Amino acid sequence: MTHDGRPQDIEEILLGGPLRHTRKEVERLSGVSDDYARRIWQALGFPTPPDDEVAFTDGDADALREIKELLQDDLIDEEMVLQLVRAVGQTMGRLASWLGDVWLQRLGEAPTADVVTAALAATGELRPAFERLLLHGWRRQLAAAGMRAAATTASASADPAAGIAWLSVGFADVVSFTQLSRRLDGDALAAFVERFESTAAEAVAEHGGRVVKTLGDEVLFVASDPGAAAEIGLRIAEYFNADPEVPKVRVGMAYGEVIQRLGDVFGTPVNLAARLTATAHAGTVLIDGALAAALPIGGYDVTDLRPRPLQGLGKVRPRLLRRAVTDGRGGARSPG
Fold first, then answer.
1. Cα distance between residue 132 and residue 150, in whole Å
2. What is the set of domains in the chain, with CATH numbers?
3. Using CB atoms within 10 A of its CB, is residue 82 exposed (0-12), middle (13-18) or buried (19+)?
4. Half-sphere exposure (CA, 13 Å, Cβ side) for 164?
5. Cβ–Cβ < 8 Å for 316, 308
6. Of the N and C termini of the chain, which has fewer Cβ atoms inside 10 Å?
7. Is 187 strand, coil or helix?
8. Who's near 125: CB < 8 A, 6+ residues apart?
């Protein structure tokens, strides 16, 4: 594998061809209007270049042309395409930054111009394999999203047209993250955040949930099955409780009617889960009454705590969730 080459040459490899068109030219070639093309570039997360700047490839023209063809379908309109383009821009932007960080760490040098060029060259050489992996991952995620939508449609309590479903919503939050960020250097902090996110993601995936988003020291997840949500929350807290060298994690969860929109979730259960997380002690899992009532009998110990005011929600009685401890005869007893 070689890592040499001019940055301009590597850019052409990554883009699939040389920059040869101005904005006006690429719009003329694709047949997409000036205003809509501007909105597409902005939705992708890029500023609109000056009219006379050569900033686009033949691939850009092809992509716009394909968008125009998509718009011929009665099920697709301009706003829907913009929403999807925005999702692609945000997701791919984070993925590209992530890949860049991984390459620089792998090369093990300070990020000089030569090191960055080497990372770009390596990415160019591996691009076909990366693209196949991305496409396969997208197909698997699309299939999973389709099955979730089918399950939601089959639920009598859901309204798929409005994006409404009954879900367990959970937040996992690193305790004292601000102090941790001051104590650790950049590499150590990044390593811990990666450990936290990967541990949470594995627990969520193993029990059939979905990570909605990560915010460095916090992970938002959902699960359709209340028992699965309980396992996710307990597994994440237990993992970090077992290691005295790392900060503990607290979890808050709630169950109820949730609005699903563009991959995100909204509604009272989301707000309640966030407030429960903020009030939980380090290493514990708090849940609301609805989730407590929906849990399978016998597998968990749920302890009512005193009601407390939660911002925007009034007085709420949290429940402390723990695993039930067997009494040695197959029965369950309180762990307290």
1. 27
2. 7-149 (no CATH), 159-333 (3.30.70.1230)
3. middle
4. 10
5. yes
6. N
7. helix
8. 1, 2
Classify 327 as helix, strand or coil: coil
Using CA atoms, how far apart are residues 134 and 263, in angstroms rounded to an integer? 18
Q: Return d(Cα 273, Cα 253) in angstroms, integer.
A: 5
How far apart are the C-alpha atoms of 3 and 125, rounded to whole Å? 9
- Return all residues near 241 (Cβ < 8 A) that are at least 6 apart: 248, 283
Query: Between the CA atoms of 83, 84, 89 and 93, what dihedral angle is there, to the nearest 10 degrees?
Result: 120
**What's the count of helices (H) and strands (E) in the chain, helices before strands?**
11, 12
Q: Tokens in use for 47?
A: 């500023």
Question: Tell me: the pLDDT tens digits for 277-330?
Answer: 999 999 999 999 999 999 988 889 999 999 988 888 889 999 999 998 765 555
Q: Packing angle between helix 34-44 and helix 23-30, nearest 10 degrees?
A: 110
Decide: 57 and 17 in contact? Cβ < 8 Å.
Answer: yes
CB atoms within 10 A of CB 120: 20
Long-range Cβ contacts of 47-50 (<8 Å, 24+ apart):
48/23, 49/22, 49/23, 50/23
pLDDT of 121 over the 90 cut: no
pLDDT of 46 > 60? The answer is yes
- What span, in angstroms and rounded, lies between the C-alpha atoms of 162 and 261? 9
Distance between CA atoms of residues 36 and 189, nearest Å: 42
